[in-house]
Structures are given as structure tokens and as C-alpha cells.
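Hi R.,

Quick one: here's the Putative TIM-barrel fold metal-dependent hydrolase sequence you asked about.
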Amino acid sequence: MTTSRRGFLTGTTAGLAMTSLTSSARGQAAKVPTKKIATEEAFATPELVKAWLEIARTDPRSSLDIPTGILSIFDNPRPGSNQDRFRRRLLDLDTERLADMDDAGVDMQILSVTIPGVQIFEPDAASALAIATNDHLAAAIARHPRRFAGLACFAPQDPVRAVREMERAVKALGLNGFIINSHTGNLYLDDPRFAPVLEAAQALDRPIYLHPRAPSNGMAEPFRDYSMGGSIWGFGVEAGTHAVRLILSGVFDRYPRLRIVLGHMGEALPFWMWRLDHMAARRAKDGRLKPLELAPSEYFRRNFAATTSGFESPDVLDLVIKSAGIDNVMWAIDFPYENSRDAVGFIEGARLTESERASIFHRNAERLFHLVD
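And here's the predicted structure, written out as C-alpha cells:
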């Protein structure tokens, strides 16, 4: 049987095309989607909401958290508004939340109680609410163990009971770290009375997620106008100030294995690192600051991790990676306050190697929060 030149070329071309298509299909089939663990995802409980509203209606100026969050979200928000959607999704740890995760391709959320957590209450009430909230969280994780992990809240107002609850949360409930919604009674974690809390976090080898809340009463007044007290400006200023206090106080010389997680690309600390190093050295030389074992930037790389929650700027991501190191950057959505699909698309489209992308999407969170046995 003879084959014409045209027939040979046609057959060869078709074969090559089929081989190319087969190879392409094999490549597509072999590509496994990157696992996605979102690390700053908020929730609330009906019991907490009731207690928050009781304070808000009794003394609405006692905390800037009340107008910036509690009242706007939980006190009869306008139907169909963002605040109404936030309220609904904060209280849901099943149907709507899981549907949103599935739609965006999110494998797991690490859940933490939304601001102001239990830190707005008197010590007895705060301790009881922390226990109830952590039990509520652990029950949700038990229902969906492959979809949720969680950070325990506790009441720094009573450090003895706080440490007891931290130990219970890790050893009995299997939670993965801790959430502190910044200041407590207008005090910050560098205050000596909170030393047992920091010591416990280091001993348990679990990080503290230092989440913003509205500025404390000592700095609140300039933030009351123009809606400045919340995520537009006040949250980042407040949490960044808290983190700088921890660094300059020498906390990390006393607790060198303590890990702190900051959201929102590090609450502006990466931008300030050069100046923090420069001025800390000058003040130590002048005797105005107790000398530290390391420069602030070195503590940032050793003791901190940063997440991308609510911040989708490629240039800022580059800066955070340079400041913190790729192993200390984790992905987050800031659900329900931000859009899950947008947050996924941001990291999928970022200027990263596939290894770096996997580190940010899941590997760093798995290591820091002990998600892999």
C-alpha cells in the first residue's frame, strides 16, 4: 500500500496535533489547584451580640467600638445593607459561609471572634463569655473539621483565668492559637500584668493574632469624626501602635519564641521598619530607650507573621515579603467584611513563584497554626 505525500503530511499533522492535545490535556489534568487556608475570618455568637448591645445601649460613648461596629452591624441594620450582610454572615458557621467558601475555592477558614470580642466586659462576664464562645467555635469545627480551624479568645482582664482558658482551648478543644482584639481596659500587652498571658502563649507554642479594634480611649477623640475610627484608618493605627509597644518594651527579649500575627499586611509596620530601626538605635544611645537585643526589624522577622486580610495591593505585598520574609506571610480574606473571590484572585494573580504562592496560601498557616500533624 502506498501513501501519497499529501496523505502522509495530513496524517502526520493530525498525529502531531493529537499528541499536542493529549500532552496539553495531561498537563491540565496534572495541575492540582493550590490549597487555600484563609487566616483572619470573623464570627460572632448570639450570646456575645446580646451582651455587646446591652453595653452599647447603656453607655454608647464608653468605647469607640460601639459606633464603629456594634451598633452599625447588630442594632437593626438596614435590610439589604452591607451591615445586614455582615451580621448575618458573622452569626452563620454553616450554610451561607460554606457556600461562599465553595464558590471562591476556599478550603479552610481559621475562625476568630470579631471585635471587640470579650475584652469590653468586666472580668467575670468576660471570662464566662470566653468559655462559651470557644465552646461554640469548637462545636462548629467538630461539624466541619476539614473546613474550619479556630483561634480561642480569652479575657486578659483576669490573667489567671485567661491562662486557664488558653490551656483548655489548646489541650482540650484542639484550637490552633489565640485572638486578642488589641487593647483591654485601655492597656496593651506590654503591661506587666499581662505577662502570664504571653508566657502561656509561648509555652503552648501557639501564636496570638493581634487584631485591631477602634482606638483606645486615650487616643480615640480625633478618630470620632469622618468615620475614621474603623478600618479606613483607626484600626491600623491602633494595632500598629500596639505592635510597636511590644517591640520597644523588650517583650520579645523576655519571650523570644512568642509569635504575634498582624493582619492587613502588617498594620503599616513594614513601611516604618527602616525608621523604627534608625530611631530605636538613636534613642538607646541617648538613654531614652532601654537597649534591645535586636533591631525592631529583626524582631519583626523572628516574632511576627503578617496576613493579607483586607489588603489587595501588589506593591504592598512585595514590601511585606521583603520585610517579614516569605515564610511569615499568610493569606486571609477578612470574611465577611471583604470579598472572598477578590481575595483569592489577588494572590492567584500576584507576582510570585508557585512555591511562594503555596507558602502564602497554605504552607505557612499549616506550620504556624499546627494544622498538619
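The longest strand covers residues 37-43.

Cheers,
M.
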